[in-house]
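Forwarding these from the shared drive since the link keeps breaking.
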Amino acid sequence: MGAISILFLVIGETLVILSELTLPYYLAKDKIIVKKLGVTFCMSLVMSIAGAFLLLAFMYGYLSYESIWVVNVVSTSMVIIIEPVIAYCVYKNLPGRSTCKGLVLAFIGLMVAITL
């Protein structure tokens, strides 16, 4: 059940970050108000689906690890790891040296939280 919670966390966090980063990109890009409203509505739906995945992830994670703190660390680490990847895909900007160091440390923290 722990693997299911991590899978749900990855899906949920990815969808949340995707909607957070995609919405401002397209709102700044398009000048037509109807397109802006359509993108906002679509990203709101994506965010709702992501919320359902995150709720399931925390529920299954708590049941399998018997500690909400393990799930919290995994969730936070997922954000730190996934967000720069999605930001690069959307905005085409490379992370700086400090960000890369943070990614490595987050990955190490994630592995420690999962294995202990």
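-- next protein --
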Amino acid sequence: MPWHRCRRVCVPDAFCRRPDHPVCRPNRGDVWKGCPVIPDALEAVNAWLEADHEVFVISAVDVEARKARQRALDKLGLRQVRLMGVGFGGSKFDPLRILKPEIFADDLWAHCREAVDAGVPRVVRIRANHDGGGDPVPGVPVLESIGEIFVKQRSYRVG
């Protein structure tokens, strides 16, 4: 299925925040409220939402960090994005197996491996200014942001 025709998408919890920006580190608590937005990533998520796709964020953080991320999403007008917490360092395999998204993107290789093992047909790693914390997963491309999905597909209409 082409990228632009997906119905269910799972994006990384840092999909719209610049991880290389000093305000965005450390990655916990209410620090997200001061992080600058990645415009093409926000545009991609809004395009998916406007095309009636379900957009999920599966976040491996504690409850307080999850609440802060929900507030950040709400402030960006992304109340339709469904945020799921799996606990700090938790596995995303079971939620992915249940949700069966067409696309999964994450900044960690371990979660990309879980997505492949869960049967997600299109998995990408978002660079997020680090090496992914493990061994690369064969066949999983690395992008700068989820917005690149649309940059590479300019000739297609979303939806």
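The helical segments are 39-50, 63-75, 93-99, 109-117, 148-151. The chain has a mean pLDDT of 80.

- D.
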